């Protein structure tokens, strides 16, 4: 896929060319939005808004990594959503059992196809990580998601967030330290799961 | 264990994990790692944390986020509305300034705007049209003298010419008053002569001035030949030969116009009247195109105002159009 050619066509009004770029980056964009916001519906809204903003602001694309540019759009849209949440805090709806006990995780809708135990452990670990991510300050969270979750380099993360490289380094170190402290409660669970992953991948 | 580690150590370990350290920093850290077990534990914990984060399942998009033509926003067009709005407002401001300029700055000339512009008909081969135009531009009163300017009798005809350049050289009350005053005082005649414009020619001429006169007009002399040569400073002449009587426009209404009438009858210079015996001589008439009187309202103000009105309306309509379009 010739990214720059598609961008050029999209700038000329070719919506199909832009949609090809959307298809190429929508998973990454949605994953970033989800890790930043923690829920599907908000992540979907933010992802859609980000691509609309990207199409509208395509003239502002000055070359370079289009991936970083798209992630910057998602980052900005996520920040907008987070600011709106702070202005208008809402209480998430949790499904309740008959005995009026709340299910801590809305994973009751998830598809646990592989194996129930493994899926539960994975889900719990993912929830734990997501909770720890959500506890991070927004500026720290975006860095650790971009670098550790999305696998971007420091330079790309700097381009996506508009922060200098030194800021990326320091925030990443502090974010990882916080994440390590937060995840200590799940320490017993983590090695077994990673061993499983390691055995499967190798 | 953790108390011994500084934030700088965490940052160094993070950079080490991401292979962002220089060879020297890397060697120094690895040496420390061999010596400090707590540093090794911390590195292991950070490595595990990073591994967990990287192992997070990638969420796939629940649906395609492609844009439909209805969803695709129209790219912002260049904003013309602010430009036209500003230009329209500017035209309005300039229009107000033009009105002010016309009625405030041009108010000094409005008092003599009632002078009727007319054709300037000049008889005589030696009439200097350019001189007349220049006089007109300088608000000059034109006094035509027949006879030789060096003739001492000129002074008799020049005296009291103040106001002789009144509108249309027609006798009017101000001229009559001036002549009356001048007949009583030769000094007054001299003073008046200094301010009067004089046209002199050896040949009879019929002049129908159209320009409104101004009492502060310089004298103009016309020579029989094509070259124009002032026949001396009228002030000096008036000083040398004080005028016994003040000339005036041929006004029959003035009871004190006897000296002027005598001068006319004797062939002395007189305003706009040919000497006796030459009145029947046909003279070619040169018509000088009508000119705007110098004190009349300058038409350029009107053009400026009309242009500004047109520009303002056009720009306002354009601004409204782009406002609706960009909205």
3D architecture notes:
Chain A has about 200 residues and is mainly alpha-helical. Chain A folds into 2 domains: about 1-90, Rna Polymerase Sigma Factor, Chain: A (Orthogonal Bundle), CATH 1.10.1740; about 105-200, Orthogonal Bundle (Arc Repressor Mutant, subunit A), CATH 1.10.10. Chain A has helices spanning about 5-10, 15-35, 40-55, 65-85, 115-135, 140-150, 155-160, 165-180, 190-200. In chain A, helix 3 (about 40-55) packs across helix 4 (about 65-85). The two termini of chain A are about 30 Å apart. With about 325 residues, chain B is mainly alpha-helical. A 3-stranded antiparallel sheet of chain B has the order 4-1-5, with no helix packed on it. Chain B has a two-stranded parallel ribbon with strand order 2-3. Helix content of chain B is about 45%, strand content about 5%. Chain B has 11 helices and 5 strands. The radius of gyration of chain B is 47 Å and the shape is elongated. The interface of A and B includes residues 19, 26, 126 and 173 of A.
What are the defining features of this structure?
heterodimer, A: 202 residues, mainly alpha, Rna Polymerase Sigma Factor, Chain: A, Arc Repressor Mutant, subunit A, 2 domains, 70% helix, 0% strand, globular, B: 327 residues, 3-stranded antiparallel β-sheet, two-stranded parallel ribbon, 11 helices, 44% helix
Distance between the termini of chain B: 64 Å
Number of domains of chain A: 2
> If strands are numbered along the chain, what order do they take across the biggest sheet of chain B?
4-1-5
**Helix proportion of chain B:** 40-55%
**Largest interface, counted with CB-CB under 8 A?**
A-B, 46 and 36 residues
Multimeric state = heterodimer
Low-confidence stretches of chain A: 198-202
Overall geometric form of chain A: globular
Sheet with the most strands of chain A?
none
| DSSP strand content of chain B | under 5%
CATH class of the largest domain in chain A: Mainly Alpha
DSSP strand content of chain A? under 5%
CATH architecture assignment of the largest domain in chain A: Orthogonal Bundle
Distance between the termini of chain A: 30 Å
């Amino acid at each position: 896929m010739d990214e720059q050619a598609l961008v050029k066509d999209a700038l000329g009004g070719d919506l199909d060319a832009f949609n090809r770029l959307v298809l190429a980056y929508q998973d990454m964009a949605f994953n970033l939005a989800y890790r930043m916001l923690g829920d599907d519906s908000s992540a979907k809204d933010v992802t859609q808004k980000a691509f609309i903003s990207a199409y509208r602001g395509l003239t502002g694309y000055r070359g370079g990594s289009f991936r970083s540019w798209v992630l910057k759009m998602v980052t900005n849209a996520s920040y907008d959503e987070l600011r709106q949440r702070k202005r208008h805090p809402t209480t998430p709806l949790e499904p309740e059992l008959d005995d009026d006990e709340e299910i801590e995780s809305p994973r009751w809708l998830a598809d646990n196809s592989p194996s129930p135990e493994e899926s539960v452990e994975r889900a719990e670990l993912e929830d734990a990580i997501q909770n720890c991510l959500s506890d991070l300050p927004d500026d720290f969270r975006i860095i650790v998601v971009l670098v550790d979750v999305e696998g971007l380099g420091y330079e790309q993360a700097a381009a996506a967030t508009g922060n200098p490289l030194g800021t990326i380094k320091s925030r990443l170190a502090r974010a990882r330290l916080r994440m390590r402290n937060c995840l200590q409660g799940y320490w017993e669970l983590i090695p077994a799961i990673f061993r499983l992953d390691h055995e499967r991948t190798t | 264990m953790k108390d011994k580690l500084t934030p700088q150590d965490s940052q160094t370990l993070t950079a080490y994990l991401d292979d962002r350290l220089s060879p020297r920093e890397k060697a120094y850290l690895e040496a420390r790692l061999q010596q400090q077990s707590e540093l090794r534990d911390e590195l292991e914990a950070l490595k595990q944390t990073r591994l967990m984060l990287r192992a997070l399942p990638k969420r796939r998009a629940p649906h395609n986020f492609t844009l439909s033509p209805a969803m695709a926003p129209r790219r912002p067009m260049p904003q013309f509305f602010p430009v036209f709005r500003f230009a329209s407002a500017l035209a309005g401001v300039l229009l107000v300034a033009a009105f002010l300029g016309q009625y405030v700055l041009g108010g000094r000339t409005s008092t003599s705007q009632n002078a009727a512009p007319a054709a300037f008909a000049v008889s005589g081969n030696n009439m200097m049209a350019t001189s007349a135009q220049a006089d007109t531009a300088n608000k000059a009163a034109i006094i035509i003298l027949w006879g030789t300017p060096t003739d001492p009798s000129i002074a008799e005809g020049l005296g009291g010419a103040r106001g002789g350049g009144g509108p249309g050289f027609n006798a009017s009350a101000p001229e009559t008053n001036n002549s009356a005053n001048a007949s009583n005082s030769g000094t007054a005649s001299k003073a008046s002569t200094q301010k009067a414009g004089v046209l002199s020619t050896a040949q009879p001429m019929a002049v129908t001035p159209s320009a409104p006169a101004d009492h502060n007009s310089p004298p103009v002399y016309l020579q029989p030949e094509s070259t124009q040569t002032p026949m001396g400073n009228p002030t000096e002449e008036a000083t040398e030969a004080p005028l016994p009587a003040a000339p005036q426009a041929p006004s029959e209404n003035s009871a004190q116009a006897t000296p002027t009438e005598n001068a006319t009858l004797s062939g002395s210079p007189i305003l706009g009247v040919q000497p006796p015996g030459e009145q029947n001589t046909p003279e070619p008439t040169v018509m000088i195109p009508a000119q705007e009187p110098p004190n009349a309202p300058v038409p350029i103000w009107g053009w400026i105002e009309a242009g500004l009105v047109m520009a303002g309306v056009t720009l306002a309509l354009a601004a409204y159009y782009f406002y609706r379009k960009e909205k």
